[in-house]
Every structure is written in C-alpha cells, then in structure tokens.
Amino acid sequence: MIASPLSSAKSDHALRGDYSACAEDFTIDQDWSRYRQEDHALWRKLYARQAGLVARQACAAFNGALTKMAIADAVPDLARINRDLGAATGWRLVAVPGFVPDEVFFAHLERRQFPVTIWLRDAAEIDYLVEPDIFHDFFGHVPLLFDPVFADYLQVYGLKGREALRLGATPMLARLYWYMVEFGLIREQGAIKAFGAGILSSHAETLFATTDPSPHRIAFDLERVMRTQYRIDDFQEVYFVLENFADLFAASERDFRPLYAAIEAAEPLAPGALIAEDRLYHRGTGAWKKSRASRLAN
Ligand code: HBI
Ligand code: FE
Q1: Is the Cβ atom of 237 under 6 angstroms away from ligand 1?
Q2: What confidence score (pLDDT) does residue 15 get?
Q3: Do the bridges between strand 113-117 and strand 279-283 make them parallel or antiparallel, or are there none, so unpaired?
Q4: Is 99 exposed, middle or buried (0-12, 13-18, 19+ CB in 10 A)?
Q5: Which residues contact residue 18 at a Cβ distance below 8 angstroms, ignoring those fewer than 6 apart?
Q6: Tens digit of each residue's pLDDT (9 = 90 or more) over 8-38
Q7: Ligand nearest to the CA of 169
Q8: Active site residue 13
C-alpha cells in the first residue's frame, strides 16, 4: 500500500490530489461542506467493513480512540477532531492534497502536526489504493495520535527526519516508518494485534498480518528494521512486533548516526530474509511465543 512518489493522480474526483491551491507547507483547506452524499455513503461502507474486524485485531489504544472519535457516519471533519486531539496529546491534523515531500512531512511531524489527505477513493478502489486517501490517513493513522507515547514517538520521528535528510539517510529512516507506523504489530495479553495504518485501513491485510501463518513476525529491533527493505505493492513478507509503545519511543531517542553507519556498511536484508539473531513470534497453543530463529531453523 502507498509510499508512491509525489503523484497527484488525476481523476474526476474534485478533491483528489489538487496541489494547485496548497500553501507553502502543502496544507489546504478541507472545506468539509464540499463532500458529496456519495462520499459520505462510501465512507460509511469502508468504516462498517473495517470496524468489526479491527475491534478484534487492532490494539487497545487504536480501538479506544476510534470509539471516542465517533467517525462512523460521515467523512470526518478535521476541525471537530482537532479539538479532542489537541486536548489529548497536543497534535493537530492538517489537510493536504496527498503525498508531500519528505522535508515538508518531517517538518509537520516535528510541530506535532499530522498531514491528512482529504480526498476519498473511488468506489472501484475499495480494496486497493496506491496513494493514501482520507480513509487510509484518518481511519488508519489518527487513532494512535491519541496515544501519548506513540504521539511522542511520532514527533521524535519528525526530528530524526531533519537529521536523516542532512545525512542522506532517509531510505533507512523510511523503513522505520514503514515497518512501524504503517505495518506495525504489537503483542497484547499474549495476542498479536495490529497498530500500523497500512494494515488497519486494509480489510485483507488486517486479516493477513494478524492471522496468516506465512509472514515472519520478528521482535522489534531498531537496527534490524532499518536494514530491512520493503515492498510497496503487496502484503508484507515480514512484520515487526512491539511489546509496548515505550520500547519504540526509547528506540527513537537513540543516536541514529552510528546505526546509519553500521547499516550502510552491511548488506540490506530482503523482506523475507531471516538472520540468526531474529526472535520470531509464533502461535503457541493459546498465546504467541517468541523464540530465536536459530532455534526454529528448519
Ligand atoms: N506525505 N502526506 C504524506 N503522507 C505520508 O505518509 C508521507 C508523506 N511524505 C513522505 C512519507 N510519508 C514517507 O517518505 C515517510 O517515510 C516520511
Ligand atoms: Fe500512511
């Protein structure tokens, strides 16, 4: 899903990818009154399709916030959500036409501002979408901004972005975003739950990531994630699993410069690769257990 370059794919959808009217920082006005009845109907359909599944497969922080946001009935109005989000974690949603350049994206995150695309996919794209639309960004990303620890992590990610641009390390940093913010898993009470937006905004990938036996599920390790390449056009072959968001925040506070140097010197890892140090999660009788890849070597 997503991570396409700056493509403002043209379509007849009035709001889709219109970069002509955006400000210096790529923000635009959402103008909620412009959504059509068919947009609200499609939003309700997308929401209803995911709600039952995420109630079972998403982490507690996601579900708690989604319920509070009460966004089932219509395309969400950023201004309404911003009142609660600001009070909860000091974050603010800003409307954008779609992908924005890395340096702009990082600058928004540094200021606790999350860029949210404001057009909604066409009915024909209900299952697969190349660029992020408002359902991906809002339903997928916004709930976790209500979690104080995750919200702090995302701001540090923005700070690290500025440094990565200076060091030419953005591809390695982007892997951290991809495997955590977009495709992250977390173990809660012995069960594997999803928190990544790329997973939770996709019906099929929510099921695949949390229940299918085929992908690897590897314990989160910052250097391992930053070494691992990813695919943007299919389900992930590997997911990384947190035990809690505090571990992710602590990792993001480390000095990344020695990590970048070590990773540059090593071979990047293909998405499906395993190394002896990996601690793999596998489903035990009830709970998911963690063991060294070397012990599970076939
Ligand atoms: N722009 N609107 C938007 N949304 C994203 O998720 C996004 C982006 N620009 C760059 C980007 N993500 C990735 O390169 C991140 O790794 C920074
Ligand atoms: Fe996203």
Answers
A1: no
A2: 58
A3: unpaired
A4: buried
A5: 8, 28, 97
A6: 444 444 557 889 989 999 999 999 999 999 9
A7: 1
A8: no
